[in-house]
Specification:
The chain is an all-beta fold. It has no helices and ten strands. A six-stranded mixed sheet has the order 2-10-9-4-5-6, with no helix packed on it. A four-stranded antiparallel sheet has the order 1-3-8-7, with no helix packed on it.
Length: 115
Amino acid sequence: QVQLVESGGGLVQPGGSLRLSCAGIGSTFSISDMGWYRQAPGKQRELVASISIGGRTNYADSVKGRFTISRHNAKKMVYLQMNSLKPEDTAVYYCNHPRFPIPSWGQGTQVTVSS
């Protein structure tokens, strides 16, 4: 059974940085493209970054140049380095497949950007 566990969120001031981690447990994680999504209150979940098995990355325009996605296949981990954070980045962040997300989403990790 596939399980995704996100961590690393928190409260940060505008302009600050956070690094999110996603652990793939009991999964074929290392042979899957992966992505980071976020869902802000009252809004739909959106894909903000993705990384292919080979390391090719894509970003939503709203985070391009500020966020960096990376992965460590042997550790079954995906990371999201978030710099120059803005209040509009406030959301719950999730990891999952970027095109065919599995039904069992993780609990997510809350990121709050506020002064």
